[in-house]
Amino acid sequence: MKILFICGSIEKGKDGVGDYTTRLCASLSTLGYDVSIISLNDPYMDTNFKTVLNSEGQAIPALRLAKSEEMNLKLDLAAQFISEEKPDLISLQYVVFSFNHKGLPFSLAKSLKKISNNIPWHIMFHELWVGMDKGATFKMNIWGKIQKFIIKRMVTILNPVITHTHTRLYQLKLANIGVKSNYLPLFGNIPVTAVTPHRNQRQFVVFGGIHAGAGIGDLINLNARIKEKFKYDLKLVFVGRNGGELDQWLPLVRNSGIEVVVLGEKSLGTISEILSQSVVGISTTPLLLAEKSGSVAAMREHGLIILDISRKWEVRGTDNVPIPSEMISCNDYFDNFAHTEDRNRTHPFGIAAVTQMYLNDLRGINII
Which CATH architecture has domain 203-336? Predict the structure, then answer.
């Protein structure tokens, strides 16, 4: 079977969905499936060209189309590439802002339908629409309603044989607009290459972007409680692109007595090593969205306990949406895990398991 994936960009290490798509292709390729990728709106390209990606030892044919290029030309090149690859299924990895800088890709569905030659579609919804939360402004609400309309129209036009999303929240929101989706958990984009037999009981790690409004005070209070009872301060390692909030955090955590190490961007192998040495991963992603965080997925796959210090983020009509059970509070950590040996968890949704779930869903509709 041949599967062709379409996403916005596949610049390695610069686009989370691009990295996800490339890793999924590599995983499928190891199982004998023919895969290829089109990056339809790649901001890291000046020209359009075909290439072969090397991902985890697998060669993946790819067509990279520059964001600055005229759309009709890109569509012609994409149609030609699809004709050459002859896929049995086209998988759209949907992120609304990947295909239009305002998040309003009105013509995307018709354009994709035109170039697909009646090949069946799959859609993976990585993001939906803005303005979901209770505190959304009038502008964000209107913007979100338009994005919701675009999704409904896209599903009508492409008529996918199957759709997926990786958060229970998004699954519910899609159902509310008449779109049935299967749950496909997110895997991390950091291969588990480092194995450390002994973790540093003091070492917590912040990997990736820090969301505004996160409860850094909760972490500082946790450190004070640990210091009082167990006589040591935490060590907090920052790795990856943490964003502007890092500058707000650093003086606060340093003044609290927490040891701070700021590493910045590192190789995949180094990040895996840091995660494997740590006991706790810090999540600042709102709980309802934690399932869509690649950083959270990577930390879980490396056996870390996930400490939630995110800001309160509420969405109407989500009382029955389950919160990931592995997310714990600072109080939970102090009461049940601090200074104990039970600090290493396993995560069932690594890339191999998710790939099999994806293939099983395709078998369920007789695509493969």
Answer: 3-Layer(aba) Sandwich (3.40)
Whether the full predicted model's pTM is greater than 0.90, yes or no, is yes
Tokens of 37: 């990728």
CATH topology of domain 2-187+351-364: Rossmann fold (3.40.50)
Contacts of 150 (CB under 8 A, 6+ apart): 96, 104, 105, 106, 108, 109
Token pair, residue 284, equals 């600042």
Residue with tokens 């895969």: 35
For 161-200, b where at least 16 C-beta lie within 10 A, e where not — what string? ebbbbbbbbbbbbbeeeebebbebbbbbbbbbebeeeebe
Helices (H) and strands (E) in the chain, counts: 11, 14
How far is Cα 293 from Cα 285, in angstroms, rounded to an integer? 7
pLDDT digits (tens, 9 = 90+) for 124-164: 999 999 999 999 999 999 999 999 999 999 999 999 999 99
